Amino acid sequence: MFWRQLTAFILMLVLFCGVLPAQAADYAPPLSFSNAELKGRDFSGQTLRAAEFSNANMELANFANANLQGAVFSASVMTGANLHGADLSNAMVDQVNLTKADLSDAVLTEALLLRAIFEDVNIANADFSDAILDRAQIKELCAKASGVNSKTGVETRYSLGCR
């Protein structure tokens, strides 16, 4: 009985010391830029999955071709930001001021966009498939929607449900 318990203990110790650190090394907590001053900052081409940018000032920031899947931008300022080709799938972009932002060729599938401001925004070739928007936002975006997203092959007007 003693040897069985000792063997089980040694096996658990080996597993704990040998396997868990390798798994832990593969995990990195998401980056947090909440409440940060990021005006004009260059994040282009970076992988920022699940990063948090809540209540941040990202006026004129460059996120061109960045991987922002699942990122949180709630209540931030992104006026004039460059999000060309960015992947914002499953992102929270609620209550964000996107005035004069470039969302051309961006992927916004399943993104939460309620109460976001889209004044003078460029959405050519953007994919909004299954994004959460209110009717007023959809009407506003449909008035300027055009093109086909280069990554998903989805037409912008179709992704918004424009008539």
Automatic annotation (TrEMBL):
Domain of life: Bacteria
Keyword set, alphabetical order: Signal
Pfam families in alphabetical order: Pentapeptide (PF00805)
SUPFAM superfamilies reported for this sequence: Pentapeptide repeat-like
Signal peptide positions (record): 1-24
Statement: the UniProt record of this protein carries the keyword Signal: yes
InterPro entries the UniProt entry points to: 5peptide_repeat (IPR001646), At2g44920-like (IPR044213)
Protein name as it appears in the record: Pentapeptide repeat-containing protein
